[in-house]
Amino acid sequence: MVSDLPALSHPRVGVLAVQGAFAEHADALRAVGAEPAEVRLPGDLEGLDGLVIPGGESTTLGLVAGRSGLLEALRAAVGGGLPVLGTCAGMIVLARATACGEDQPLVGGMDIVVRRNAFGRQVASFEADLDMPVVGPEPLRAVFIRAPWIESAGPGVEVLATWGGHPVAAREDGALGMAVHTGQTPARRVHRQ
Ligand code: GLN
Predict the structure, then answer these.
(1) What local confidence, expressed as pLDDT, does residue 192 receive?
(2) Which of 89, 121, 131, 181 has the most CB atoms around its CB within 10 Å?
């Protein structure tokens, strides 16, 4: 999922399906030759080569996953090195903290602090062409929907794209966080990584 990991021919990639844009990610994964598997319960994490945590609402995601024990299982899987892509709310739950210190359950796994709804209310949703050289030279059509940005990042985090001077995509080991939605655009390139 992240380019410097060995490529698998037909990886089985879980898509967290408790809430949010999981169907789009499953389609995007299928389009790049992966086998998507919906993850709703802790046992669904078994045998996966990677995981996608889609956009949605990070508080809801944390609450719903918390009820079934899935949150703990996600912490263990991501902490144990399962490659993971988190988009928008998915990136928020991969953070170690939120900038406003909201009391919401997170999965963690990336040494980043994120600011939720960072781009303000008037421009809460917009599209932009993002330079993200790691997925190719062409700019990436990115959809920001009440998107977060990365407020601060630890030394092990590599920023992959910025918008308005703020990091909006980053990776750390096998974890890739993107503030934007990617499933519905040519950003399928991201899934291919
Ligand atoms: N604003 C949402 C949150 O804070 C994220 C929005 C999204 O995933 N599109 O969780």
Answers:
(1) 47
(2) 89
CA dist 165 and 173 (Å) reads 23
CA distances from 27 to 15, 50, 53, 83, 183 (A): 11, 15, 14, 19, 8
CB atoms under 10 Å from CB of 50, counted, come to: 22
* 163 beta partners: 166
62 lines ligand 1 (CB under 6 A): no
Q: d(Cα 143, Cα 139) in Å, to the nearest integer?
A: 13
Spell out a b/e string for 67-100, using b for 16 or more CB atoms within 10 Å of the CB, else e: eeebbebbbebbeeebbbbbbbbbbbbbbebbbe
Q: Is the pLDDT of residue 24 over 90?
A: no
Q: Is the pLDDT of residue 182 over 80?
A: no
